[in-house]
Write a structure and sequence with these properties.
With 386 residues, the protein is of the alpha/beta class. It has two domains: 253 residues, Type I PLP-dependent aspartate aminotransferase-like (Major domain) (Aspartate Aminotransferase, domain 2); 112 residues, Aspartate Aminotransferase, domain 1 (Alpha-Beta Complex). Helix content is 38%, strand content 15%. The protein is built from eleven helices and 13 strands. The strands form three sheets. Strands 2-8-7-6-5-3-4 form a seven-stranded mixed beta sheet, with helices on both faces. A four-stranded antiparallel beta sheet has the order 9-10-13-12, covered by helices on one side. Strands 1-11 form a two-stranded parallel sheet. Strand 3, helix 4 and strand 4 form a beta-alpha-beta unit. Helix 1 runs antiparallel to helix 7 and helix 2 packs across helix 7. It is globular. The chain starts with a strand and ends in a 6-residue tail after the last helix. 50% of the residues are buried.
Amino acid sequence: MIYFDNAATTFPKPPSVIRAVQDAMTCYGANPGRSGHKMSVQTAGQVYACREKLAELMGAPEVENVAFTQNCTHGLNLCIKGILQQGDHVIISDLEHNSVLRPVDTLAQRGVITYDVLEICPEDDRETLSRLEKLFRTNTRLVAMTHGSNVLGIMTPLEKIGQLAHDHGALFLVDAAQSAGVVPIHLEKMGIDFLCMPGHKSLYGPSGTGAVVTQKGELLRTIIEGGTGSVSLESQQPDFMPDKLESGTVNTAGILGLGAGLEFITKTGMENIYRHEIGLVQSLYDGLSQIKGVQLYTSRPGLGRNLPVLAFNVESLTGEETCAKLDEVGFCLRGGFHCAPLAHKKMGTLDRGMARLSPGYFNTPEQVEIFLREMRKIAANPGNGR
């Protein structure tokens, strides 16, 4: 089996992550922050250590700027619904995942907000920013933008978008589902007000982990209240971070695994990881571009412009059909619509979806060659398609 579905979740996990989860079950089984006995205090220390590592990696000035979540979608909902109020206007992009589109559209359908969709110009950041400038209104409260498309790998000019948002008095929310752990992100230097990410993708943590990183937690209304282990005699939710966003027991085993994933990134070097993965994507792109009957949807991926994600289709097949054929010969890819209808509308693939390649750090050039060999066979004889 060759795994090329790292945009969905990274696999395999580093051995250190597996060991950390095992340690959580055998050595740190107490509830962190809920008791005063030694095991609880030690477990809380392990959770704090992960929070500290994530704050450092993401350029957050305080450890308390990091709140753990179930996943990136959970964090995005906490921010979007915690920020927006009646009459607000929002700008999103035409690359957004449903984790941004759906909460925004739900609020619009309820008559709470209005929103516009920015058309990203992949080859021209100036044009993208010019289009964005025209969408601002006097009541624009939030710009919610993906750092990079989970379908196409296209990266947005994040820092410039954030500056423009602030120039217009709007807050800037970033969906870093595909970029956190692959390319550098710095909360302060990039002008990000709210940063949301999963732990199970390129941070190499277990599923069921994620984080919101923000210096502006005081602006968020809570949408979940409950036990936090702090100010327990008060009927109101704590107004300080991270307790404000962390109701209920956190995923201790997942967080300890995430901490090990963060250590793996630091020791390996984020740039080394990124260059390796982009190199594989470039080889995949070059090979697929030479196969008759294969359609690619972007220009050749480049450093600083793309994430290690590549979408393609085979003539006469849907994305799901292509991935099913690849599964039969031992490859794991994702086919379909990838929870991103705006991207498929942009590329004209609402009728067939796409197949998506997303190699990871543990993939090899030899695996790329094996994949291309099988793709030549599939493209030459697609069989019954649509």
